[in-house]
Amino acid sequence: MPNVMRNIPPVNDLLDLPPLRSLVERANRSVVVSGVRRFLDNLRVDLANRATDMGVPGAQELAERIAEWIIQEEQLTLRPVINATGVLLHTGLGRAPLAQEALDAMQANASGYASVELDLDTGERSRRIAAVEGLLVDLTGAEAGVVVNNNAAATLLTLTALAADREVVASRGQLIEIGGSFRLPDVMTASGAKLREVGTTNKTRIEDYREAINQDTAALLRVHTSNFVVVGFTAQPTLNELVELGRRRRLPVIDDIGSGAITDYSKYGIEDEPVARDSIRAGADLVLFSGDKLLGGPQCGIVVGKQLLIDKLNSHPLMRALRVDKLTLAALAATLKLHRDTPAAEERIPLLRFLATPVENLRHRAERMAEQIAAARSVATAEPCEDVTFLGGGSVPTQQIPTWCVKITPARGNVDDFSSRLRNGDPPVVGRISREAFMLDLRTVFPSQDMELVGAISPDSAEA
Length: 464
Fold this sequence. Notes:
Blueprint: H1 2-5, H2 11-15, H3 18-26, H4 29-49, H5 59-74, E1 82-83, H6 100-110, H7 133-140, E2 144-148, H8 151-163, E3 167-171, E4 177-178, E5 182-183, H9 184-191, E6 194-198, H10 206-212, E7 217-223, H11 239-248, E8 253-258, H12 276-282, E9 286-290, E10 301-305, H13 307-315, H14 318-322, H15 326-339, H16 342-348, H17 350-356, H18 359-373, E11 379-389, E12 401-410, H19 415-423, E13 429-430, E14 432-434, E15 437-441, H20 450-457
Parallel strand pairs: 1-13, 3-6, 3-7, 7-8, 8-9
Antiparallel strand pairs: 2-10, 4-5, 9-10, 11-12, 12-15, 14-15
Helix pairs in contact: 3-5, 4-5, 6-15, 8-9, 16-17, 18-20
């Protein structure tokens, strides 16, 4: 084994070979040197642990391997991808893509300093929520609003500020679990509030809430069950009923609508998604929702409602830990401005544009792309096909959205291997596997990405 170790070339000799010399010219020398040393250290450990003799590659081959390894190691884990899954709010792919106006606003405020907490008129310190509060009030009809880093944080802050060490009445059928095994009862426990479950999994009546109220009750909670549906023999009290009970007993009603619809999505075939303005109009004291789902903005959690209650949230110590930065505020403000004009929102906000794209448009694109993709050496067949997809992001899981795909059968290997090659390509392409074929769903592909998508599978980029 010591003789084998002596066959490993010195670092400087390897750096003089073309693969690593060209990498030094394109990258930072210290990064390359560090990479070479780490690779050789790993190689020595591997050699020492081998039960059988293992040869050391020649210097040229070793330099090529090291250069390839350094490039792979230096590649960012967080990278832009082409989403060809058809899932519009794909949690693994960052949910809603941002409008160009939101990107421009982020760039403008990221490149220097920004008036995050400064009133430019008076020169005095201001509240950072001022950047978006007026827009939230206009769009929802609420008295005030606050923004934190996601809707789970909005729930945590609300329950902590209003109900710590007291009871919150909630329907057993609405105690949801969202992505990552994140459960509403756990959030409530973390807030210090005490959960008072009422009703059964499928049936809860307003009388159940009424009978549960006692001197320790702090609030009534309604949660939109966005990621599952209970059908059959079911019942839940309406928001109007909860508001009437809350007012009679002087208790705030908290309405967590989840996905954050600012407008009615029924025009896109998405039914039964609560709209923030409707909840405020019905009398909910606080309405909670996400910014990066149906709103089509950056990740954040939004709370709108009564000024007195919003003030309690703003003044709570937890608010500082959950507040958002200037980039989120800039992107959110730009997105909210677009929502003031529905035609502009449909044209500029990617999520709405994807939903509004006619099926016929997708069919034409699929037909054109299938013909081009079929020419790739890695492809046996590529054909357009009609299919359905889903909104995703824990929203309306039972409601299908019509779409068109390019259905691909690989020329060699299995579909999983083909999917992996595309996923690890440049650019990474993420599709879905269905019916023993690889599907490129165009519902979530920007038209400007069509040729890039074809190029990822074309003969020029296919394997030899």
